[in-house]
Amino acid sequence: MSGHGDPIPMMSSACGPLSGTAEVPGDKSISHRSLILGAMCIGKTTIEGLLEGQDVLDTAKAMRAFGAEVTDHGGGSWSVEGVGVGGFAEPDGVIDCGNSGTGVRLIMGAMATSPIVATFTGDASLNGRPMARVTDPLSAFGCRSVGRSGGRLPMTLVGATEAVPVRYVVPVPSAQVKSAVLLAGLNAPGKTVVIEAEATRDHTERMLAGFGAEITTEQTDEGRVITLTGQPELQAQHIEVPRDPSSAAFPVCAALIVPGSNVLVPGIGLNPTRAGLFTTLREMGADLTYENERVEGGEPVADLRARYSPDLKGIEVPPERAASMIDEYPVLSVVASYAQGQTVMRGVKELRVKESDRIDAMAVGLRANGIEVDEGPDWWIVTGRGHGEVPGGAICASHLDHRIAMSFLILGMAAQKPVRVDDGGPIATSFPIFEPLMQELGAQVERTDA
C-alpha cells in the first residue's frame, strides 16, 4: 500500500471465523520518538522492531535532513548516529512529514530551540490540520513561525537563538503538544515545566529518562507536573519497540465481532496511558484476555487473546479515559455498532482535529451503513444493533485517514452486505501489512476497481 498517490478503493465482506496469530507492527509513537531522540544523542542508538510505515519513514528522512546518520539495516533494525542536543544542522530542503501530525509536531519541538530555519509541509490532510497548538508554546522559547492562514502548513520555523525555559499548562490533553514542549526544553537552559490536567501517553517522558535526561513527574493540585532540566548530554541507547496497541485494536476488534473467532496478538505494549480501549472492551463484555504479561524496555507488554463475543453491551466510556484511547474511538464505534444498547463517548473533541474530523467521518459512514449515531462538539453516541444486525452496504470516505479506512473495513467483516472505502492507501502510514495480515487470519479484504 502507499499512503500517497492514486486512491486505492477497498472492500470487506462477511467472513468465517478469524483465527491465528496477528503479528502487528511496532508502536508508531515509540518509533517516532526513538528516531528523534536518537538524533539528539551523542553516539549510535540502535532500534529493533521499528514501525516501517510511511509516517515513521518520513521522520527518519527528516532526521537525516537535520544531520543525523540514519541507517536501515533491514527487518525493522535501524541505527541513528546522533548529533547531540542543539546539534541539528539547517536542512537544505523542505521537510515533508506526509500524513503524520505526530512527526511534524515533535520535529518542530526538537528544532525550535536551535538557531536554524526549517520549512515543513505534508499531504493534503496534514496541511489542513492546526499547528498553532504547538507553535504557540514554542514561541515562548523564542521560536518564530510563519505559515498559512489558521496556523496551517506549509510553515517555516525560525529556531530560538537564545532559548529560555518555559512553564506551560497544556490547554487540552495532547501528548503531541506536551512532547513538543519537552523536546524544545532539551536545548533551553534551566528547567522547563509542563503541566497537564489529564495524563496523556508518557512515552516521551519514559524515553527521555532512559536516554539520561533529568526529568521528574509529580501529581499535584494543578495536575500532572513534568519538570525537565535542559541541556543534558543524552546517551545513545538500544531500543526494543513494543508492538503498537493502536494497530492491535483492529484484529482484536475484528475477532470480537466475527462469529467463532479466536485471535492471538502477541507482544502488545500496555502502557497505562495507551491501554484504555482494552479496558473499555472488557467492560462491554468482550472476551479479551492478557497472557504472558511482562516488562520490555521499561514498557508493560502482554499477548492479547481476543475471542468472538456475542453478548457485547453498550456502556458510557468515562471521559477521563479519552486520552488513553483517543486513536481507538473510530474502531470502538464499530464494535459499539455490534453491541446491544448505546455506547456513549464524551470528552473527545480532540477527535475533530486528527487526520480528519473523526467524529464526523465515522458518524457519516456508520449512518450510511444503517447505524444510528448522535453527535455533538465533544461527544458522540452509537446505538448498537447487535450481532448479525448491521446492514452494511455503503461506500465510506476515508478522508485520507488511515484509522477511518481500517475501521470501516473491520465493520464490513460482520455486516450483512460488504462495506467499501474510497481509499485504503493511507493505511500504509501506520499499518502497512494490514491487508495481508487480516487476510491471513481469514478476513475477506480486497482491493476493488471503484
Overview of the structural elements:
The chain is built from 12 helices and 24 strands. Helix content is 27%, strand content 29%. It starts with 9 loop residues before the first strand and ends with a strand. Helix 3 (101-111) packs parallel to helix 5. It has helices at residues 28-39, 54-65, 101-111, 132-140, 175-185, 203-210, 245-257, 276-283, 329-337, 358-368, 402-412, 434-441; strands at residues 10-13, 19-21, 42-48, 69-74, 77-83, 95-96, 117-121, 144-148, 152-158, 167-170, 191-196, 215-220, 223-229, 238-240, 262-269, 287-296, 299-307, 316-317, 340-346, 372-376, 379-385, 395-396, 419-421, 444-447. The protein is an alpha/beta fold and 450 residues long. The model has no long low-confidence stretch (mean pLDDT 95). 56% of the residues are buried.
Task: Summarize the SSE layout with pairings.
Blueprint: E1 10-13, E2 19-21, H1 28-39, E3 42-48, H2 54-65, E4 69-74, E5 77-83, E6 95-96, H3 101-111, E7 117-121, H4 132-140, E8 144-148, E9 152-158, E10 167-170, H5 175-185, E11 191-196, H6 203-210, E12 215-220, E13 223-229, E14 238-240, H7 245-257, E15 262-269, H8 276-283, E16 287-296, E17 299-307, E18 316-317, H9 329-337, E19 340-346, H10 358-368, E20 372-376, E21 379-385, E22 395-396, H11 402-412, E23 419-421, H12 434-441, E24 444-447
Parallel strand pairs: 2-15, 3-14, 6-7, 10-11, 18-19, 22-23
Antiparallel strand pairs: 1-23, 1-24, 3-5, 4-5, 7-9, 8-9, 11-13, 12-13, 15-17, 16-17, 19-21, 20-21
